[in-house]
Amino acid sequence: MISQQDITSIIGSNAVDNDGDKLGKVGQVYLDDQTGRPEWATVSTGLFGTSETFVPLTDATVSGGTLRVPYEKAKVKDAPRVDADQGHLSPAEEEELYRYYGIGTGTAGYTDTTTDTTTGTAGYTDTTTAGYTDTTTDTNRHGTVGHDTSGPTTDSAMTRSEEQLRVGTQQVEAGRARLRKFIVTENVTTTVPVSHEEVRIEREPITDANIGDALDGPAISEEEHEVVLHAERPVVAKEAVPVERVRLDTQVVTEQETVTDTVRKEQIEADTDGITDINRR
Question: With contact defined as beta carbons under 8 Å apart, do 49 and 38 qualify?
């Protein structure tokens, strides 16, 4: 059984079905106008939680900040669509929802705990008697004027909240780099000096110095004299020598990146119920 003390923990919590599958977040809690007991809750369903579906709190339980209802997920998602923005369930809407969920009929009329439906002077709309509007001033046990249905009243002001972005950074692996050594072949051309011997004929006249060598041997004869010629040829040899050292290193580069997200914020407006002379600040 869900009590009024559970309301603050229910609103904004996750709702799950009887199998533990997530239904969505609880948006609003509706109270019975006569007993003040929580009877209905709206759960954000559909794509991105853009629609709210009513689910009865009868036999629902709260544990660990999670609302568990005794229905299957498909049953909740296919419930009749009722406008949750109106802040109040009419008897006809309540009867339709009870028939759909197959549970007994409750007392007619339910008020959204997050919206106080007022008429004329501060008070609340009582739908237990058709067409009757209670216009008496409703001063609750906290001493503030108005019918507080969203939870315990703390003072006479309403708190407006909004979401703010908290952007940080997370280090993730962006890629990998590695060194790989392989062999390529290329042609190298270079010039090297080489030398060779050539034959040169030298003639000298007969003198007193060489007359002896000239007369050594027969006066007339046939002779042959041979000289070995030498020449240099290029010789190619290969030698592997180290030329440089290569390694991988990292450096940090900082750049600006724009982050865009959607945040929600609450807006507060006054429902004057036809009163045009109201002070605004």
Answer: no
- Point out which residues pair with 112 in neighbouring strands: 30
Query: What's the pLDDT tens digit per position in 83-122?
Result: 776 677 888 888 899 899 988 655 444 555 554 333 333 3
Tell me the pairing of strands 110-112 and 14-16.
Answer: unpaired
Q: Among 75, 69, 110, which residue's Cα sits nearest to residue 93?
A: 110
Task: Judge contact between 109 and 34, C-beta under 8 A.
Answer: yes
What single string gives the DSSP state of each residue in 136-198? S--B-TTS-BS---SS---SS-----B---------------------------------B--
Cα 96 from chain centroid (whole Å): 40
CATH number of the domain enclosing 9: 2.30.30.240
Q: What is the pLDDT of residue 184?
A: 94
Is residue 68 classed as helix, strand or coil in its secondary structure? strand
- To the question of pTM greater than 0.70 for the whole model, the response is no
Query: Does 167 fall in a domain?
Result: no
49-61 per-position pLDDT tens digit = 457 899 999 889 9
In a domain, 92, yes or no: yes
- What does the angle CA 242 – CA 244 – CA 249 come to, to the nearest 5 degrees? 140
Q: Kindly tell me the sign of the dihedral angle through the C-alpha atoms of 20, 23, 27, 30.
A: negative
Following DSSP, what letter does each residue of 110-138 receive, concatenated?
Answer: EEETTS----SSS-----SSTT----S--
Those residues with Cβ within 8 angstroms of residue 156's Cβ, 6 or more apart along the chain or in another chain: 144, 145
Q: How many domains does the chain have?
A: 1
Distance CA 188, CA 81 (A): 85
**Residue holding tokens 């190298």?**
188
Name the band, by pLDDT with cuts 50, 70 and 90, for residue 221.
Answer: confident
